[in-house]
Amino acid sequence: MAKPTALTAAGRPIIMPMTDDSADITFEDPEHPAPEGQRAGAFVTLTTPQYFKTMQIPLMQGRDFTDADDGKSAQVMIGDEAFAKKFFPGENVVGKRLKPGAGNGGEPAWREIIGVVGSVRMSATQREMRPEMYLPAAQLSHWCCLHTVARTAVDPLSLEPTMRQVVASMDKEIPVTTVRTMQNLVSVELSQSRFAMVLLGIFAGLAVTLTVVGLYGVMTYSISRRTREIGIRMALGAQRRDVLGSVMREAGVLLAIGVAIGVVASLLSSSVFEAILFGTGPRNPMVLVVVSAIAASTGLLASFIPARRAASIDPMEALRAE
Where are the domains of the chain? Predict the structure, then answer.
């Protein structure tokens, strides 16, 4: 049996983060009246008290829901930071009254905003914080169905048997289906993007390998064709560093052309990769600089071996070569 202190907080949302589930509704704002078809809208989530504490969502202004926010009390709601910034920039939203289009089997009620909480990414691949409204589940009892989230001081899965027993003791007809950790939810949410990144990484590795092998082959072939020329230059007084520098400059020109073509191709195809990039843009200058530097340094390293071999050619043997 788990210790009583193992469970530190628990709450119940109707929509779980990292599941790609969502519900959006419009709302009526008396300060900015608009026809029904042109009203502003935001995503909505029903929650119970302690949900924000459980998920460690910070309370920025006002108060959290309490057990007193039930169907008999004043109708309330909470907006997130993105909601406040988008619809009421520079204003104090606490105390404002809105009418979200979410009823309890009847006409939606006017609700007072009692708090503002931090914004949450409902999807791991979500690029921008979306406006979110939170409504107390006790005031919308006709809505179904709530998940249960719990924060623990121990391994969450170790409490699964105990939590199933607790639910069964309350009502044996209530099913306890899937039990997951947030880490598992995030991992599943990222699985498709991670698979795409792995494939791109493999292709990128193959591209670098082909670059190295190709440049090495080109430089080796070029040097074999210039053996007599290099021998004559060295016989006339050219130093090894001069030969090395000449070969490396030739490789540098080829690399510069290749990197330039690659950068242009990357910019032209940015729209293709935009959908699978998160946390950065397809035209991020720093990324382009770093990738170009890696490609250039790798290519120069591949060119150094044949260049060093060219600088080590014996002039007399080179002159006797066919």
Answer: 4-180, 190-320
